[in-house]
């Protein structure tokens, strides 16, 4: 079994030039789900730029995360349409089921629950995105089923 | 360079900031009258492009070889001026700045513009005197032609050698172990990393095949000599016989940290409770344990939370290997809830599949090891829980091993007790930072995992190779301001070597066989603490010497009015705090006149004495707050020197408070202003020192005593060493030492006075004459004279049956 | 030698000088905020706006970055400029209401209140970037940087933790026009003792 991720092997993949930085950060994020201080420092040492450089870049793009995330990410839309059609109730439901606050990660690091501002899928309201997959017109029941599928698939 | 200095002075108006507050006409007029000033010009903004162009023109037209810019903060502006003036032929050290704006123009609301000009003149004259006293020294060029020596036995050796080979740089690996032994050691030093051993073997193979890498087998290192470009290192011969000598252009150290077993406080017994290194060995020699195997990541409790993630990674790969090899073991990784899981999402999935449990405990209460159970709390729950174990595996204790320390100290990388080798290193300006970091790789520098160690070796090799490339292109030069040792004067006492934190000083075979010292100009950061400490004043800071400081102090002191104070402020503490006074909208006592120094530790005692001698009634040194000094504990050295001066002042019958040390932080200008006020009040409240012949004689004697080798050697011996971890050092018998030092000072002071008196009188003197002349006790004088006579410092003759003395 | 006019005065400049530099050389003061003599101009705050006139046509430019050119006709105190300055000060007052320095400076130009909404009453930083520029260009260590973007933009060290790269020189504090850096620096430099958490 050789599935261990090793920061050095990610880094070694790219030449030690500034242009590599964004790709290295992406790969780190892909492998670890987030970019830790240690890993960012390693990337900077490799590329030869100060830590601030990578940090500014990582905070500039919304897609980079600097805090650990769960294995599964759940985004609940709270745009106007979804809000009206019961988005908040879905958030409550998920918070209760997963025992976690919106914006946080469960203690076992399995789920991260977040709210978003309108996913542009108002026709499907209320919408939840689970691991990049859209779940349209969610109800408490549907949520339960989705969570179960996740556990089953593991 | 011409011998007669030609100093140009440029006065900033800085819009209205200076012009609106200072009588510029008066200022310029007085500056022109200053000796050595060949040119003076008032400009709206010398620092903007039009101003820079004007300065360059003046340098060319008037043939200036050093300039003073009376403007604002040198911390902010100096780099710009230095860069701009390079092509006008002025190097670092030939440009000085006086902070006219923030130390004078904007902070003295109570003064008239003319009074501010008067103060400005004093500061400028001091700076001009400093520059005029400079004997310009050139930058040293360094060439590196010999191979790089990699020593220390660390695993990073191989990665570094491989990198050198790729770079086309020759290297020598000096190892005491063979490849197999190195691999075996990895179990112990990098537990749970067996999956990476294949990589290590590949690197080893590549290195073996490279014609650029030479491998030698050596014993313990014995000695290192020489400097960058030209080192020779000798090792013990493992086969017995003559030591092995290696010549190298640069040295790089690869040092692995070692693992120790945790103490019994966590239940370690080497059997059912062990640490990860032991578990790794057991796993690969005997096999996995059976039953409940619990890895307790106890780094937080052991006081090293920063290594918890390393221990977690170790536990994870060991635990995983165990479960994959045996279905009779259950692995639990038990960790503090504050330590984040260092696993990727994929690894977490694997972990779940393998049934590895991760239990986070609340560190409020330290978990307790009990027979077969661990008791602990979880977050937000008061219930005490139990975790059963059959085999408990603790985090290893990471230390720097004996061997690593030996190698490090051979390379002058000072080791502080309880610290890893990558300890805080004085950062002066990045281009001045020594190469210390670059030449060190491996977990003894700072704990890391195996692949990081290899990467460090590789990266350090890249840095080293860059230095070599520079030297090949003929572009490797030392900074302009570095310490230089005059071997004619050096007695080889070794004080400088001990005090230097950069590891720049080494032994050379001196004149007449004495072991003198030499500075490696590429490593020297120009802190100047060593130079100020040298008993013989054999070491000096080129382009920023003590002679210059004395000139600056003297020139300022001559100008000071009775109630005014001469001050020295360091870049990082005192001077920076003063720079920020105006910004914070505060006012500063105008009686304080501050001279810039890079660090308080650079101020030789002679400089302080010179200020007092030439007219100052109070002298204060503003350094950094304790433990924040940027230069090898310079502020502590300042403390020792100031206290010596206090003793001398007392011996001469002056008030000890005429010299003082203070601490300042750049971000606390309020505090600084208060300290200034407090001290100027003290000095203003005292009668000024009457400059009578008697008093001048005493002040002269104080100055001479600060140059006395015996006094200086004793003083140096007491200065805080880089490895001492307490402010002002951790001397064994501090009081005892101080009492003895006071005695020696008294003796040398008295003898200095006698010598001076005898020289001044020119004819033999009786004890009584001298006692009257020096206004001192007759018996004491007699005692001193007898001692001096026995040491051959004075001659005794008899005239009219009375003993007379002469030099 | 370039020839042009500032406030109807004939001035001369070398190629490469900016309008601001030329004006200052002639003793004409233009207020600035994000400009500091020690670093490259960035043109971020727009306080140094001047008016360029050519016939009926006029244009506003930031003098700290606008290069001197032959034949320019520059006005530093026109009515339009006064209005723009007021407007900028009002913006600044709404963006960093907590800075006494900014309030003082605005008051000097007669601005004491703002029409704009105050987003964060605690904010004291105007994001002029002087601190990060001085840290990078003068000190050369890049210990601090601008992070995030939009309304979340802020200044600090990575992960808001003490940065080992910081040499604690205080240059950033000295150049900060609002006093904001003085309140942030302790987080950046940490305590030196903590920087060496190397305890074995
Ligand atoms: S160097 Fe400093 S004081 Fe002189 S003009 Fe420039 S900013 Fe002003
Ligand atoms: S302190 Fe001075 S005399 Fe002593 S070894 Fe160093 S240079 Fe030589
Ligand atoms: S104090 Fe630190 S952050 Fe500020 S300029 Fe200096 S190095 Fe940069
Ligand atoms: S902290 Fe000060 S210098 Fe830095 S961006 Fe904010 S206002 Fe500008
Ligand atoms: S640097 Fe401030 S006292 Fe040494
Ligand atoms: S000073 Fe010119 S844009 Fe800020």
Automatic annotation (TrEMBL), chain A:
CC cofactor: [2Fe-2S] cluster
Similarity comment text for this entry: Belongs to the complex I 24 kDa subunit family.
SUPFAM superfamilies: Thioredoxin-like
GO molecular function: 2 iron, 2 sulfur cluster binding; metal ion binding; oxidoreductase activity
Keywords: 2Fe-2S, Iron, Iron-sulfur, Metal-binding
Protein name: NADH-quinone oxidoreductase subunit E
Organism per entry: Desulfatibacillum alkenivorans DSM 16219
Positions bound to [2Fe-2S] cluster: 77, 82, 118, 122
Entry keyword annotation includes NADP: no
Stored Pfam families: 2Fe-2S_thioredx
Automatic annotation (TrEMBL), chain B:
Residue ranges that the Swiss-Prot or TrEMBL entry lists as coiled coil: none
Any GO molecular function: iron-sulfur cluster binding
Domain 4Fe-4S ferredoxin-type, first and last residues per copy: 481-510
SUPFAM superfamilies the record matches: 4Fe-4S ferredoxins (SSF54862)
InterPro entries: 4Fe4S_Fe-S-bd, 4Fe4S_Fe_S_CS, MvhD/FlpD
Keywords associated with the record: Iron, Iron-sulfur, Metal-binding, Oxidoreductase
Keyword Endoplasmic reticulum attributed: no
Listed Pfam families: Fer4, FlpD
Protein name as annotated: 4Fe-4S binding domain-containing protein
Organism expressing this protein natively: Desulfatibacillum alkenivorans DSM 16219
Taxonomy of the source species: Bacteria, Pseudomonadati, Thermodesulfobacteriota, Desulfobacteria, Desulfobacterales
TrEMBL record, chain C:
Pfam families: Fer2_4, Fer4_7
PROSITE patterns: 2FE2S_FER_2, 4FE4S_FER_1, 4FE4S_FER_2
Alphabetical list of InterPro entries matching this protein: 2Fe-2S_ferredoxin-like_sf, 2Fe-2S_ferredoxin-type, 4Fe4S_Fe-S-bd, 4Fe4S_Fe_S_CS, PSI_iron-sulfur_center
MF (Gene Ontology): 4 iron, 4 sulfur cluster binding; metal ion binding
Keywords for this protein: 4Fe-4S, Iron, Iron-sulfur, Metal-binding, Repeat
Record has NADP as a keyword: no
Domain 2Fe-2S ferredoxin-type: 1-80
Domain 4Fe-4S ferredoxin-type: 114-147, 156-186
PANTHER family with a match to the protein in the record: HYDROGENASE SUBUNIT, PHOTOSYSTEM I IRON-SULFUR CENTER-RELATED
Protein name as annotated: 4Fe-4S dicluster domain-containing protein
């Amino acid at each position: 079994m050789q599935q261990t991720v090793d920061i050095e092997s990610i880094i070694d993949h790219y030449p030690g030039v500034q242009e590599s930085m964004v790709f290295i950060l992406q790969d780190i994020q892909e492998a670890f789900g987030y970019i830790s201080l240690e890993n960012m420092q390693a990337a900077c040492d490799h590329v030869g730029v100060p830590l601030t450089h990578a940090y500014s870049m990582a905070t500039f793009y919304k897609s980079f995360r600097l805090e650990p995330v769960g294995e599964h990410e759940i985004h609940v839309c709270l745009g106007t349409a979804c809000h009206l059609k019961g988005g908040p109730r879905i958030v409550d439901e998920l918070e209760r089921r997963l025992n976690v606050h919106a914006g946080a990660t469960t203690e076992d690091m399995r789920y991260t629950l977040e709210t978003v501002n309108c996913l542009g899928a108002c026709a499907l309201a209320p919408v939840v995105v689970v691991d990049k997959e859209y779940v349209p017109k969610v109800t408490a029941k549907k949520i339960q089923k989705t969570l179960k599928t996740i556990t089953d698939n593991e | 360079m011409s011998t007669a200095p030609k100093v140009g002075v440029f006065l900033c108006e800085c819009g209205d900031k200076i012009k609106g507050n200072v009588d510029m006409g008066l200022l310029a007029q007085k500056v022109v009258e200053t000796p050595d000033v060949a040119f003076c010009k008032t400009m709206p903004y010398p620092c903007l492009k039009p101003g820079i162009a004007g300065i360059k023109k003046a340098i060319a037209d008037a043939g200036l070889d050093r300039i003073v810019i009376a403007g604002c903060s040198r911390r902010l502006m100096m780099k710009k001026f230095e860069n701009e003036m390079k092509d006008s032929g002025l190097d670092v050290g030939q440009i000085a700045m006086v902070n006219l704006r923030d130390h004078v123009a904007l902070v003295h609301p109570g003064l008239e513009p003319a009074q501010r000009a008067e103060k400005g003149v004093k500061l400028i004259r001091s700076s001009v005197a400093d520059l005029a006293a400079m004997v310009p020294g050139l930058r040293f060029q360094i060439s590196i032609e010999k191979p790089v020596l990699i020593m220390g036995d660390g695993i990073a050796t191989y990665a570094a050698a491989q990198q050198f080979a790729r770079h086309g740089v020759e290297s020598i690996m000096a190892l005491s172990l063979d490849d197999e032994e190195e691999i075996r050691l990895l179990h112990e030093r990098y537990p749970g990393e067996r999956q990476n051993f294949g990589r290590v073997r590949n690197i080893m193979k590549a290195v073996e095949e490279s014609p650029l890498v030479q491998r030698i087998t050596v014993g313990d290192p014995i000695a290192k000599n020489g400097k960058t470009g030209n080192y020779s290192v000798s090792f013990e011969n493992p086969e017995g016989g003559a030591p092995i000598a290696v010549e190298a252009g640069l040295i790089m150290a690869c040092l692995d940290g070692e693992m120790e077993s945790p103490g019994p406080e966590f239940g370690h017994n080497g059997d059912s409770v062990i640490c990860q290194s032991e578990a790794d060995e057991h796993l690969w020699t005997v096999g996995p344990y059976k039953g409940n195997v619990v890895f307790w990541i106890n780094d937080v409790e052991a006081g090293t939370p920063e290594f918890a993630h390393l221990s977690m990674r170790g536990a994870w790969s060991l635990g995983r290997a165990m479960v994959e090899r045996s279905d009779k073991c259950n692995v639990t990784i038990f960790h503090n809830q504050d330590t984040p899981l260092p696993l990727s999402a994929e690894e977490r999935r694997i972990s779940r599949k393998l049934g590895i449990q991760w239990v986070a405990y609340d560190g409020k209460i330290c978990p307790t090891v009990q027979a077969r159970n661990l008791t602990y709390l979880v977050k937000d729950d008061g219930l005490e829980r139990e975790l059963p174990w059959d085999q408990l595996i603790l985090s290893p204790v990471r230390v720097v091993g004996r061997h690593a320390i030996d190698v490090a100290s051979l390379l002058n990388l000072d080791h502080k007790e309880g610290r890893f080798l990558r300890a805080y290193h004085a950062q002066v300006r990045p281009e001045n930072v020594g190469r210390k970091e670059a030449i060190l790789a491996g977990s003894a520098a700072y704990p890391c995992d195996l692949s990081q160690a290899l990467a460090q070796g590789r990266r350090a090799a890249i840095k080293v190779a860059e230095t070599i490339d520079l030297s090949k292109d003929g572009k490797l030069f030392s900074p302009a301001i570095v310490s230089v040792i005059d071997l004619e004067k050096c007695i080889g006492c070794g004080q400088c070597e001990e005090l230097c934190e950069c590891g720049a000083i080494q032994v050379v075979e001196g004149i007449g066989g004495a072991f003198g010292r030499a500075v490696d100009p590429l490593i020297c950061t120009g802190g100047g603490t060593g130079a100020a400490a040298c008993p013989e004043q054999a070491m000096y800071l080129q382009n920023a010497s003590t002679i210059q400081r004395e000139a600056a102090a003297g020139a300022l002191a001559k100008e000071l009015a009775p109630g005014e104070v001469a001050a020295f402020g360091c870049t990082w503490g005192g001077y920076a705090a003063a720079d920020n006074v105006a910004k914070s909208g505060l006012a500063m006592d105008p009686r304080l006149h501050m001279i810039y120094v890079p660090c308080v530790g650079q101020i030789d005692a002679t400089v302080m004495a010179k200020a007092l001698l030439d007219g100052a009634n109070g002298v204060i040194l503003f350094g950094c707050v304790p433990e924040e000094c940027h230069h090898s504990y310079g502020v502590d050295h300042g403390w020792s020197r100031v206290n010596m001066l206090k003793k001398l002042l007392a011996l001469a019958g002056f008030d000890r408070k005429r010299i003082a040390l203070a601490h300042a932080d750049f971000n606390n200008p309020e505090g600084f202003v208060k300290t200034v006020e407090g001290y100027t009040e003290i000095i203003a409240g005292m009668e000024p020192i009457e400059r009578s012949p008697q008093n001048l004689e005493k002040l002269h004697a104080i100055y001479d005593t600060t140059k006395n080798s015996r006094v200086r050697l004793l003083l140096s011996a007491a200065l805080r060493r880089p490895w001492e971890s307490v402010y002002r050092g951790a001397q064994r018998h501090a009081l005892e030492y101080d009492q003895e030092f006071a005695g020696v000072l008294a003796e040398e002071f008295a003898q200095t006075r006698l010598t001076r008196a005898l020289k001044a009188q020119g004819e033999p003197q009786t004890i009584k004459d001298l006692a009257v002349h020096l206004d001192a006790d007759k018996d004491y004088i007699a005692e001193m004279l007898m001692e001096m006579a026995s040491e051959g410092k004075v001659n005794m003759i008899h005239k009219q049956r009375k003993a007379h003395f002469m030099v | 030698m370039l020839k042009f006019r500032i406030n109807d005065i004939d001035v001369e400049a070398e190629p490469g000088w900016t309008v601001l530099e030329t004006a200052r050389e002639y003793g004409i003061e233009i207020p600035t905020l994000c400009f500091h003599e020690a670093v490259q101009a960035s043109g971020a705050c727009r306080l140094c706006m001047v008016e360029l006139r050519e016939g009926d046509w006029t244009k506003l430019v930031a003098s700290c970055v606008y290069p001197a050119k032959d034949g320019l006709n520059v006005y530093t105190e026109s009515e339009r400029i006064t209005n723009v300055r007021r407007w900028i000060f009002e913006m600044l007052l709404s963006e960093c209401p907590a800075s006494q320095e900014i309030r003082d400076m605005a008051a000097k130009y007669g601005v004491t209140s703002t029409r704009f909404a105050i987003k964060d009453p605690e904010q004291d930083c105007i994001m002029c970037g002087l601190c990060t520029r001085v840290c990078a260009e003068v000190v050369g260590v890049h210990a601090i940087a601008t992070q995030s973007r939009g309304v979340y933009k802020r200044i600090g060290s990575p992960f808001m933790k003490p940065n080992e790269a910081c040499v604690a020189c205080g240059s950033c504090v000295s150049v900060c026009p609002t006093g904001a850096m003085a309140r942030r620096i302790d987080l950046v430099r940490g305590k030196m003792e903590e920087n060496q958490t190397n305890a074995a």
